[in-house]
Amino acid sequence: MILDILENADLYAGLNPRFPAAFAFLRRPDLAELPLGRMNLEDGLYAVVAKGPGRKAEDALIETHDHYIDLAYVIDGTDNIGWKARRDLGPSVEASDPRNDVAFYADAPTHWAEVLPGMIAVYFPEDAHMPMISDGEIHKIIMKVRV
């Protein structure tokens, strides 16, 4: 997991060949005006624009991905994202869906990160995470970066 500000994103550009394009997208001046939903950018890289009320941790499940890295960028609001090492998870509560590259678990996070506007949070396949936990509304971009 990486937690930082977008201004420092280039420090991590070498971790994946698609990271430079993802960071360039997040530097667009019109992020707040983008329509909700998925935007395909290039092979192995797409963005999901999400906006809505946060959830309570007790109403959410922690998730993992096998083939994609989640790179979250908060535009507005506070996203409290839970984290737990994937190796420490119990069995999944729902069958993994290979088309959507997601599996869910009933485990509680062991750590929490408060992700504020202008910050990035990067979750690799080794990182279980529980996003969209907040008392308020969250506007964010989730970059999906193929491993």
Fold and architecture overview:
This protein is mainly β and 147 residues long. It is 5% helix and 46% strand. The protein has one helix at 19-26, and strands at 2-5, 37-42, 45-53, 62-64, 68-76, 79-85, 103-105, 111-115, 119-123, 127-133, 137-146. The protein has a six-stranded antiparallel beta sheet, with helices on one face. A hairpin with a 2-residue loop joins strand 2 (37-42) and strand 3. The model has no long low-confidence stretch (mean pLDDT 96).
Short description:
This protein is mostly beta strands and 147 residues long. The protein is built from one helix and eleven strands, in the order βαββββββββββ. It has a six-stranded antiparallel β-sheet, with helices on one face. A three-stranded antiparallel β-sheet has the order 8-6-10, with no helix packed on it.
The major beta sheet can be summarized as: 6 strands, antiparallel
The whole-angstrom Rg is 14 Å
Average per-residue pLDDT, rounded, comes to 96
Query: Topology as H/E string?
Result: EHEEEEEEEEEE
Provide the spatial order of strands within the biggest beta sheet.
1-9-5-11-3-2
Structurally, the number of domains stands at 1
CATH architecture: Sandwich
The helical percent reads under 10%
How big a fraction of the residues is strand? over 45%
Structural class: mainly beta
The CATH H-level homologous superfamily? YhcH/YjgK/YiaL
Looking at the structure, the CATH topology is Jelly Rolls
Uncertain runs are: none
